[in-house]
Amino acid sequence: MVYQITKGIKISVETKYDGSNTRNNGIYHLFAYIITIENKSSETVKLTDRFWMIFDALNKTEIVKGEGVIGQTPTLAPNDIYRYSSGCILESDIGAMKGYYTMLNTNTLKQFKVNIPTFQLISKATAN
After folding, report:
1. Domain 2-118 adopts which CATH fold?
2. How far is 97 from 32, CA to CA, in rounded Å?
3. So where are the chain's domains?
4. How large is the average pLDDT for residues 41-50?
5. pTM for this predicted structure
6. For residue range 97-118, what is the model confidence (pLDDT) as tens digits?
7. Whose C-alpha in 30, 37, 87, 126 is 20 to 30 A from the C-alpha of 105?
């Protein structure tokens, strides 16, 4: 597990290789990740947007951005924890992801970015 704290918001990431799949005469590798967001600050915050850079060893970098995460824009009071799972598909069995969340301080209405630490996407066969 990797984690990073930005302005009192702790982002932790766990990853899992979910195997491979054949599609259009190609082999694709499935990765799952679980993100835990902990509000260790004294302010209430709302996650409004996400930005991801997905690196595939056999492909170009993919950028993913949009509102919220998995269709939600969670609000976290001090000491609240929000956890969700998602995944990605790579052509390679090696890759990485990093990015940031845009948060809104609900008291001051100021936005700020919270870094998502770089995490590795590696198949079990490659890790051995």
Report:
1. Immunoglobulin-like (2.60.40)
2. 12
3. 2-118
4. 98
5. 0.93
6. 999 999 999 999 999 999 999 9
7. 87
